[in-house]
Write a structure and sequence with these properties.
By secondary structure, the chain is of the alpha/beta class. It contains 15 helices and eight strands. The protein has an eight-stranded mixed beta sheet with strand order 1-8-7-6-5-2-3-4, with helices on both faces.
Length: about 375
C-alpha cells in the first residue's frame, strides 16, 4: 500500500529498513501572509478563516473529537481538513506527537513548543522575515531534530502552512530549481499563473543574487516552517530515518536541506530522508510532483495507497476530485500505518470514517 515514484532503489531500501518501526511525529505550524491573497488557497473559505486554519488543525490534532472547539475546523470549498487522516493515525498508533509554533499570526489554543518565530510577510514583498529570525529558527530546528531523533525509530516531520505551496515555488525558484507549473495546491485545478505572478513579484523585490545563502533566500521569500523543518531533518538524519510528510512543500524543504548542506558545509544524511505524501498529490494531473522530485534529484517520493473513492461521506470523496489533497502530514502518517500495522487502504479508510462519524455526531448535537 505504499507507492515509490522516484529514486526507487533508495526508496524501497528506506521502507524495508523501517518496516514495523514506531515513529514520532513533529508537526510544524507556520503562517505566511501569502495565504491571505484572495483565491491563493482553498484551506479556508475566506482570508479571515485562513488566519486560523493552522490553529484549528492543531487543536483537532491535539484533542481529537470534542463537542466544542475554541477554533472549529474551517469551512472549505469542498472536502474536510486532512487532519482527520492524521488524527486517526495518531490515535491508532498512539503516535508521540510534538506540535511546534514556528511563527503564527495568532496564539494557538493548545499546548505547543514555541520556537520564538514570526509570521512571515507575503512572498510578494521580498522581505518575508528578518535574517536573524531565520537563523534562530534554523538553530531551533537543529536542536529539536537532535532531541527527537532519540524518541522513536524514525521521525515524521509535517506542516500546516496556508499558502505554503506558493512559498515552496518561491523557494525552489530562488534555489535555482525550475519548478514553474510543477507544484500542487489545495484547489482541484492548480492556480499556477496566480502563484507564479506572486513569486515573480517577490523575487524581483528581493533582488536575490544567484548562488546566495539559502537562509537569505528563506528570509526573502520563504515561510517559518521551511527553515525549522530543514534544520530538524538535517539533525535527525544523522541518527535516524526522516520522513518529510507533505507534497511539494516538503520537496522544497528537501531542496533547502541540500542547499544548506552544500553552502554551509553542514552534515546531513540525505539517504536517511524521504518525502511521503498522498496519491492525490503524487498523481495530481494539474501539477507534476513526480517531475519536481526528479528535477530536484536524489529524493525518494513515496505515497500512501489510501483512497476515499468508496467512502460513504461526500466530504471525504471530495479528495478524489482534487480538493484538499494533503496537509498536516496526512500522507506520511498514513504511510506509517502501512509500515507499522500492515494496514490496507480499506482498514485505514474505516478508521478515518469512524472518527469523522463521531465528529459529525458530536458537532450536530452540540449545535442542535
Amino acid at each position: 500500500m505504499i507507492y515509490v515514484y522516484s529514486e526507487l532503489q533508495s526508496g524501497f531500501r528506506w521502507l524495508k529498513k523501517y518496516h514495523g518501526a514506531s515513529p514520532s511525529f513533529a508537526c510544524i505550524l507556520g503562517f505566511t501572509a501569502t495565504g491571505l491573497i484572495p483565491g491563493i488557497s482553498a484551506a479556508g473559505a475566506t482570508p479571515q478563516d485562513r488566519e486560523y486554519t493552522a490553529i484549528a488543525d492543531a487543536e483537532f490534532l491535539a484533542k481529537g473529537v470534542q463537542a466544542n472547539y475554541h477554533h472549529p475546523l474551517p469551512l472549505l470549498e469542498a472536502g474536510v481538513s486532512p487532519t482527520f487522516i492524521t488524527r486517526a493515525v495518531v490515535e491508532a498508533l498512539k503516535l508521540p506527537t510534538y506540535i511546534f509554533n514556528a511563527g503564527l499570526l495568532h496564539q494557538p489554543t493548545v499546548e505547543t513548543i514555541d520556537l520564538g518565530g514570526v509570521a512571515a510577510a507575503c512572498v510578494s514583498s521580498g522581505k518575508a522575515m528578518g535574517i536573524d529570525k531565520v537563523r534562530h529558527l534554523f538553530q531551533q530546528g537543529l536542536k529539536w531534530g537532535e532531541k527527537l531523533a532519540d524518541t522513536a525509530d524514525y521521525l515524521i516531520i509535517g506542516e500546516c502552512v496556508v499558502g505554503g505551496t506558493t512559498t515552496a515555488l518561491a523557494l525552489l525558484t530562488a534555489l535555482g530549481i525550475e519548478a514553474t507549473g510543477l507544484v500542487n495546491s489545495s484547489h482541484p485545478t492548480c492556480n499556477h499563473s496566480q502563484k507564479w505572478s506572486v513569486v515573480q513579484t517577490g523575487l524581483s523585490n528581493a533582488g536575490l543574487l544567484a548562488q546566495c545563502d539559502p537562509l537569505i533566500a528563506v528570509a526573502a521569500i520563504g515561510d517559518p516552517m521551511q527553515i525549522v523543518a530543514a534544520g530538524m531533518a538535517i539533525a535527525a538524519s544523522r541518527r535516524t530515518g526522516v520522513m518529510l510528510a507533505g507534497g511539494t512543500q516538503m520537496l522544497a524543504v528537501y531542496a533547502l536541506i541540500e542547499a544548506i548542506a552544500n553552502y554551509h558545509s553542514v552534515s546531513a544524511q540525505l539517504s536517511q530522508i524521504v518525502v511521503g505524501t498522498t496519491r492525490w498529490v503524487a498523481e495530481d494531473p494539474t501539477g507534476n510532483t513526480v517531475g519536481l522530485a526528479q528535477v530536484i534529484g536524489r529524493v525518494s517520493l513515496l505515497a500512501t495507497g489510501l483512497s476515499f473513492a468508496t467512502s460513504r461521506y461526500p466530504s471525504l470523496r471530495a479528495y478524489t476530485s482534487g480538493y484538499v489533497k494533503e496537509g498536516v502530514a496526512a500522507g506520511g502518517c498514513a504511510i506509517a500505518t502501512h509500515l507499522k500495522l500492515n494496514w490496507t487502504s480499506t482498514q485505514l479508510l474505516n478508521t478515518i470514517e469512524a472518527l469523522f462519524a463521531h465528529y459529525r455526531y458530536l458537532r450536530r448535537n452540540s449545535i442542535g
